[in-house]
Amino acid sequence: MSLIGTLEISRKALNAFKTALTVTGHNIANVNTPGYSRQRVELSPSIPLDELPSGVDVEGIRRVRDLFADLKYREAIAEQGRWDVQRGVFEKVESVIGDTGEGSLLDLLDRFWAAWHDLADLPESTSSRIHLIQTAQALTAKLKEIDSHLVETLGSIDEMLEEKLLRSNELLREVAELNVEIAAVMGGGGNTSDLQDKRDAALDELSKLMGIGYSFEENGAVDLRAGGVTLVQSGEYSSLHLERTSSDVAILTQDGVEVEPSGELGGLIELRGKVSALLGEIRRIGAELITRVNELHSSGYGLDGSTGTPFFTGNDSSDIEVNSDLIDNPALIAAASEPDSPGDNSLALSIVSLRDTFDSEVKSLLTEVGSMAAQVERMAEGSKAVAERINSLREGFSGVSLEEELLDLVIYQRAFQAASKVAAVIDDLLQTVLNMV
């Protein structure tokens, strides 16, 4: 091999190790950058034109990434998002409905029946009737409070859905734009590692928001789908919006195709269904309480001989009230089943007999709320642990290790110095040859 050929080998080596040092420095600079994937220079022996070796070539700069770990992490983070978003809301729902202490729905219902029992003991007592009105007012106020809280919760869920859809649309647009950039850079033979990191960060966030599936095109672009509907294809994306009906909501694409996502969006829709069901149940209980008590009370007789007076007004838990006529004139409260029988307590006892039915229904509701809250808490904790474990493995593979980078830095530095030494030696030999001429 000629001295010029050996000098060319040195030049290639210097270029290769300079590139390696640059990439190593880039890794070190991004050691604390979220979502950054370490990069590695791929070196290979140059293909010789004859039998003699011809040095080293830089094949390219490779991004160290485990695609399978990415896939499993995104599946796990979607499940975590589904349950996390429900946990915070259900804690508040349980605190309002699921409480069994003083002032709770169950406690106030017990006091209501006890007040009717006290009236049955003293059917001619005005003070017992006043006490009954007070306990009934506390019960109706609690029913309306629960109803109002559930209605407000549904409104909050809809607001959260709108916010997360807005963020989802921003990310879908970002992925489509990055697809175009990555395809262009890759087509020109450039390094797309940092662009892919940026896109992977968007895919991670989208996974938590809606749960996604995806596939890669040959030009480096990613096609993305959620709920079986394609939302990003190359540089095109479909935005999402929320459509409300009288009793439900749906997520639709701009073309009107319904998307059934998982992740936080799916969790919110699932949560909305649960809260709607609880609201329906509390309203059913309120409506039944109004109907059953009114049926009996309207058939009885008050101290003044009046009859046909309803005890409650309203349709359900949203508007239940104690009849204002009774508040103004407690003597209208019926305890007797027969007219002109002020000592008769049979009507009051008939109303007390409703207690078992309503206690059973309320306890069943409390059990349902408690079971839901426990499930949400359990699933949230479990999915979080799985996501964290997978992410730890993913970060261990793709993340930057300072110790490893510093070791590489020394290796490439020594290699660069050695290549420089070879170039210096060849330069001396060339000078000697030139002086001989």
Tally of separate helices? 10
In total, how many domains does the architecture comprise? Answer: 2
Spatial sequence of strands, sheet with the most strands: 3-4-5-6
Structural class: alpha+beta
Shape: rod-shaped
Q: What Rg is obtained from the alpha carbons, in whole angstroms?
A: 37 Å
Report how far apart the termini are. 20 Å
Q: Bin the strand percentage.
A: 5-15%
Number of strands: 11
| Portion of residues within helices | 55-70%
| Low-confidence regions | none
Mean residue pLDDT: 91
Order of helices and strands: HEEHHHHEEEEEEEHEEHHHH
Largest sheet: 4 strands, antiparallel
Can you put this structure into words, describing what you see?
By secondary structure, the chain is of the alpha+beta class. It has 2 domains: about 5-65 and about 405-435; about 70-390, no CATH class. Helix content is about 65%, strand content about 10%. The protein contains 10 helices and 11 strands. It has helices at about 5-30, 65-95, 105-120, 125-185, 195-210, 265-300, 325-330, 345-350, 355-400, 400-435, and strands spanning about 40-45, 55-65, 215, 220-225, 230-235, 235, 240-245, 250-255, 260, 310-315, 320. Strands 3-4-5-6 form a 4-stranded antiparallel β-sheet, with helices on one face. A 3-stranded antiparallel β-sheet has the order 7-8-9, covered by helices on one side. β7 (about 240-245) and β8 (about 250-255) form a beta hairpin. α2 runs antiparallel to α9 (about 355-400). The longest helix is centred in the middle third of the chain and has 62 residues, at about 125-185. The two termini are about 20 Å apart.
